[in-house]
Each structure stands twice: as structure tokens, then as C-alpha cells.
Specification:
It is built from 15 helices and 12 strands. By secondary structure, it is α+β, with helices and mostly antiparallel strands. A 5-stranded mixed beta sheet has the order 5-6-1-7-8, with helices on both faces. Helix 10 crosses helix 12 and helix 13 crosses helix 14.
Length: 390
């Protein structure tokens, strides 16, 4: 009796949906009068604000992303400057998520206007990937009438890159064509190239295209010496390899404090005062829940759009400890001299703690008793009635 062996190949099918100029499209959908006008979406109306998105008409007048609002006003008097409407974009993004989630049980929302979908094994329903992509694209057009592009490949990296460089509405990268597809593209499209050390080395060696990086990676010992700890991720990306999975939306409990500065500044005293105020609010909410945060993330947004963040954890939730830990995260995250526009503190992964006083730690006990007294005053008269001094 002959025996047969079968090898079952499981090829992933990952979709990336990108709505080009999502913020601009959302504004134009809300106001039809903007469809033929030169429009620029800005981070703030003050002189230090920057352009976040522009219409093709505004681009023809010489405006570009990252340009200062003061300069944009001098260059173009006819361009309509719109403030960044995060509430509108968030609602639109959530509505689109509900729309595309009907086509797959695994949908991961990314930044505004972008989604990943794991369509592996769905050909029995949609016949093939291109037909599934066409159905999803048409459905998006039906519900919101926004231009969209869909990239299809075996992983998230290639699908995302394809929607950023390929003009076709739906484009599929077949298995085995990953390196060939990436070869003529600019090396900055590889995520690891954003690391300062890697970026400097790519410019120094004139590795402008991915095929240049692929060639260097063939000489393993030399590539390891050049890129050090970034060698492995860069080598994988140059080959079009990505093992990250599509993560479904998980609603996590968070305490988030965000402050948009009325005027961009790099004055350390003012910034520390703001961080103390925000940390005090986080600590106040944690003590009301009798919890600590095992994950703390402090994020800084600079005037020029650059973002820096650092993570840590809280072991104690009294006022002094929370302020001290948040200030430490701020000093670690503030790595530039540029002026700061926004500071965000995000606390998550909560753990219940017992408010048991420690007889052998008088300082900690004093801080906790002081925090309880502050909380009593704030619950009665409001949080801003009393603040922690420097």
C-alpha cells in the first residue's frame, strides 16, 4: 500500500487600506465648498503652527507639509487654513473601522485612515484576493465616498508600502516577488531606516534604493559591522519579510491627560509646571481607583511635528511619587531643543493596591497622608484649588 505525504503551505493574505489625505478628504466631505479650493490643515493658528496636510491646489501655490503657518500666510493669501479637527477624524476613522470589519474578523486600525486586514483563508467566501479588495474598496466609496487604495501581500510591511507608492486602486504582490518589488524603491521606506544611526549610514554610503541595501546585506560580516544591532531588522525588511500579526482592536482601560500648550515653548520651568499639573491629575484618578499603573507613557509633540516618547511604571500612587516619575519620563523624552506643542501622559495596565501604611518608611507614609489630604480638598472644592509646588 503506497503512502503519500502532503505539505500544506499556509500563505498569509494581508490587506492594507489607505485613504490618501484622509484629513483633507474628511474636511471636503463635510464642506463641499472646499472641493475646488486650495486648503491646508494646520496644527495651530499661531505663527508657530505647521501644515499637517495640503490639497493639490495649495501645493501648486508653493505650500508643503511641515511649513510654518506664518510663512504659509505670506506665500498664499487664497489658501484656506483649517485647524486640525481630531474629533471629526476620530469619528470618521471609527465609522470606517465598523465598515471594513464586516469583511474579516481580524482588522487592526492604524493611524487615521489606515487599516490592516488579515484575509487568510477567506478565498472560499470572496473567490480571490483581488475580488475581495474590490468589494471592500467599493463599500468604502458607498458609505463615505472617499478615495482609497488597497495593498495585498503576505505581510503588513509590504502591503503598507504598496499603498504608499503604487497608484493603482488595488495592487497585489505575489509570493516570491517581495524583493523584486522593493528593489527600485527608496530606502527610506524601510521602517528601520528612520533610526538616526541607520539614516546617517545610508546617506554616508549612498544607499538610496532598497536594491543597494539588498546588495550590502549579501556581505553578511560587512553589513553587521556597518549596521550593528540594526542589521537583522534591516536585512529582513530589505527582503520584504515581516512576522508581525494583525492585531484586533482591544479596548483597554486608560487614564490619559493631554495638554496642548497655548504657545509653543521650550522653557523648562513652564514645561515642568505643566507636567506636574498633569501628573497630579493622573495620581488623583489612580488614588480614587485604589490602583497603580504598571505602564506609563509620556509623549511629546514638537513644533515641527517630531514626536518623542518614553515609558515607565508606577509602584506608588501618592502625589509626590507620581509627579517625580512623570518628570523623570519627561526629561528622558525631551531630547531636543525645539519648542514643544503637546504633552500626553497615558497610564494603563492597572493593578489594585492596598492603602496600608508602612511604619518603617516614614517618608512614604508622609507622602501618602499628604496625598489623602489633598484629595479630600480637591473632591470638595475642585482639582485646581490646590497645586503641588516645585
Amino acid at each position: 500500500m503506497p503512502t503519500y505525504s502532503f505539505i500544506i503551505m499556509n500563505f498569509r493574505s494581508i490587506f492594507h487600506i489607505r485613504l490618501q489625505n484622509f484629513e483633507l478628504q474628511a474636511e471636503r466631505m463635510l464642506d463641499a465648498a472646499l472641493k475646488s479650493r486650495a486648503v491646508a490643515i494646520i496644527s495651530a493658528h499661531n505663527a508657530n503652527g505647521t501644515i499637517v496636510a495640503i490639497s493639490p491646489e495649495a501645493g501648486q501655490e508653493g505650500l508643503c507639509k511641515g511649513m510654518k503657518v506664518s510663512l504659509a500666510r505670506k506665500m498664499s493669501q487664497s489658501t484656506r487654513l483649517l485647524p486640525y479637527n481630531r474629533s471629526l477624524y476620530s469619528r470618521m476613522h471609527n465609522y470606517l473601522y465598523q465598515t471594513v470589519a464586516r469583511f474579516s474578523p481580524l482588522v487592526e486600525p492604524a493611524v487615521f485612515g489606515q487599516f490592516y486586514m488579515d484575509m487568510t483563508g477567506m478565498n472560499g467566501i470572496y473567490k480571490n484576493d483581488l475580488r475581495a479588495g474590490d468589494m471592500i474598496s467599493k463599500r468604502i466609496n458607498e458609505v463615505v465616498r472617499l478615495e482609497n487604495h488597497i495593498g495585498i501581500s503576505s505581510n503588513k510591511l509590504l502591503s503598507r508600502i504598496s499603498t504608499s507608492v503604487v497608484p493603482e486602486r488595488i495592487y497585489k504582490i505575489d509570493s516570491g516577488e517581495e524583493s523584486h518589488f522593493l528593489a527600485p524603491l527608496h530606502s527610506r521606506l524601510l521602517p528601520t531606516s528612520a533610526q538616526p544611526a541607520v539614516e546617517r549610514m545610508l546617506r554616508f554610503l549612498f544607499l538610496r534604493q532598497v536594491q543597494d541595501v539588498q546588495f550590502v546585506m549579501l556581505q553578511e560580516s560587512a553589513a553587521q559591522a556597518i549596521f550593528s544591532r540594526y542589521y537583522k531588522p534591516l536585512a529582513m525588511e530589505a527582503k520584504g519579510m515581516d512576522t508581525s500579526a494583525v492585531q484586533p482592536l482591544r479596548k483597554q482601560d486608560h487614564i490619559i491627560e493631554q495638554t496642548i500648550l497655548p504657545e509653543d515653548t521650550n522653557d523648562e520651568e513652564k514645561l515642568c509646571a505643566i507636567v506636574r499639573q498633569m501628573a497630579g491629575q493622573v495620581g488623583f484618578k489612580l488614588r480614587r481607583r485604589s490602583e497603580i499603573a504598571r505602564h506609563m507613557n509620556l509623549e511629546i509633540h514638537y513644533t515641527d511635528g517630531y514626536r518623542s516618547e518614553r515609558t515607565g511604571s508606577l509602584k506608588i500612587n501618592d502625589e509626590a511619587s507620581v509627579v517625580r516619575d512623570c518628570l523623570e519620563l519627561f526629561f528622558r523624552a525631551n531630547i531636543r531643543r525645539n519648542r514643544i506643542r503637546t504633552i500626553i501622559i497615558d497610564a494603563s495596565k492597572f493593578q489594585t493596591v492596598a492603602c496600608q501604611l508602612d511604619l518603617f518608611s516614614p517618608t512614604e507614609t508622609q507622602h501618602r497622608v499628604l496625598a489623602e489630604a489633598l484629595d479630600h480638598i480637591r473632591r470638595k472644592h475642585g482639582f485646581t484649588i490646590i497645586k503641588t509646588a516645585a
